[in-house]
Amino acid sequence: MAVIASAPGKVLMTGGYLILERPNAGIVLSTNARFYAIVKPLSEEINPESWAWGWTDVKLTSPQLLRESLYKMSLKNLTIQCVSSSESRNPFVENAVQYAVAAAYAIFDKNKKDVLHKLLLQGLDITVLGCNDFYSYRNQIEALGLPLIPEQLAALPAFLSISFNAEESNGENCKPEVAKTGLGSSAAMTTAVVSALLHYFGVVNLSSSEDQLQEKKNSSDLDMVHVIAQSAHCIAQGKVGSGFDVSSAVYGSQRYIRFSPEVLSSAQVAMKGLPLQEVIVDIVKGKWDHERTKFSLPPLMTLLLGEPGTGGSSTPSMVGAVKKWQKSLETWRKLSELNSALEAQFQMLSKLAEEHWNAYKCIIESCSKHKSEKWIEQASEPIQEAVVKSLLGARDVMLGIRYHMRQMGEAAGVPIEPESQTQLLNATMNMEGVLLAGVPGAGGFDAIFAIVLGDSGSNVTKAWSSLNVLALLVREDPRGVSLESCDPRTREITLAVASVHIE
């Protein structure tokens, strides 16, 4: 029986760079772009003599990369060895498998261990699939001379194979690079694989997305997924990052404060040869002191992402440059205050929506048709005025955040908000119905985001197109990891067939 789990990509709206250090918080939105992991046995039967085997087979298929990797996994020390070509290795999935299996062995009693051993001897067949939104298809659309509009992305087949930039301009082959949109594909993939495996082994019992919408009954199960996915992801990356991308992949949209890096020191030691079963107990019982608070955008607000097509930025090298720069504590303190202020304005707007829905809905719809300087004129009663004041407050705070991020970038010598992005963001914030705009995460040339009011999104995407920006299909979806009832590829085909109108 196959187990299918999915985990969302992310957009870090506030907290870029600061989120690397406790106790700074960041607001991270999870998205409708999801990574899927399908886990099933490689063979239905076990050879009666196979109990003597000290290893099992693992097959990893990545249809979008047209790759299939074969591994042997030692059931004694849980190491995994690639037996197909080394080019097809995926360190994120390799670590996800090792850590998930080690967690099951560490937690289970003797009887459950025997069942697990039997399950593993059937082999593991793992397939990973990422929504098209994780990858950039801008170059293909431009090469065909088609307009840069989201409809072109919507027309692409689901889970399209990803083209590689396998040649440098001088004709030499280089390491294949997949053009990405910065939604955190490695964190979403690692989380999807870990959650599918832990559910398959019976370590956790995940809920489906339908159950999630009603109530989260499985918080301890999600905590287990989080700890294992966070560990596997950090080891695969070769460094202990802030972990906001894995946290949002597990729990969904949130306000996040990072864990103390020391909690993973035993995992880093394991890289030097300590048995993984011992390490995993330390990790699971470790003091995970990250903090997260539920967060999602107030009603009638939409997240938009745009791809400017000025070439990607290397997040690790930008983070390194900012770390090397002797940071101005004043700039960091100010940014931290502004990030909290933006969160407070969003909370106020959510509260006003909850308590005065009709007035809130009416004023948001009015503001969606006007530029920000005309919003206050739309308010005809005190509640509507309070909503507009909060909207304008959020705008001012965002302008402050952008100003200090630019200052930090200039001082550190990295393009956090390059001049081309500044012009684009200013133009965006000047459009009807746009609440705010910025560069997500570490900034650079990768993408821009906007939060828009009511139905103003379609006008913004058209305006972006005229500015040579491709609006992506990504939206906020506050759900975290979830169990899926069927292979997403068959669902996409069903949806496509359902959308065909026969005259």
From TrEMBL:
Show the GO cellular component annotation of the record: peroxisome
Major enzyme class? transferase
Q: Which Pfam families would you find in this protein's record?
A: GHMP_kinases_N
Q: In which pathway does it act?
A: Isoprenoid biosynthesis; isopentenyl diphosphate biosynthesis via mevalonate pathway; isopentenyl diphosphate from (R)-mevalonate: step 2/3
Its Enzyme Commission number?
2.7.4.2
Extract one GO molecular function annotation from the record: phosphomevalonate kinase activity
The record's annotation in Gene3D superfamilies points to: 3.30.230.10
Record-annotated GHMP kinase N-terminal domain positions? 180-252
Q: Which residues form the signal peptide?
A: none
Q: Which Gene Ontology terms describe the biological processes this protein takes part in?
A: farnesyl diphosphate biosynthetic process, mevalonate pathway; isopentenyl diphosphate biosynthetic process, mevalonate pathway; steroid biosynthetic process
InterPro entries given in the database record? Erg8, GHMP_kinase_N_dom, Phosphomevalonate_kinase, Ribosomal_Su5_D2-typ_SF, Ribsml_uS5_D2-typ_fold_subgr
Organism's domain of life?
Answer: Eukaryota
Keywords assigned:
ATP-binding, Kinase, Lipid biosynthesis, Lipid metabolism, Nucleotide-binding, Steroid biosynthesis, Steroid metabolism, Transferase
State the family named in the UniProt similarity comment for this chain. Answer: Belongs to the GHMP kinase family. Mevalonate kinase subfamily.
**What PANTHER family would the database entry show?**
PHOSPHOMEVALONATE KINASE, PTHR31814
Put simply, this protein is called phosphomevalonate kinase
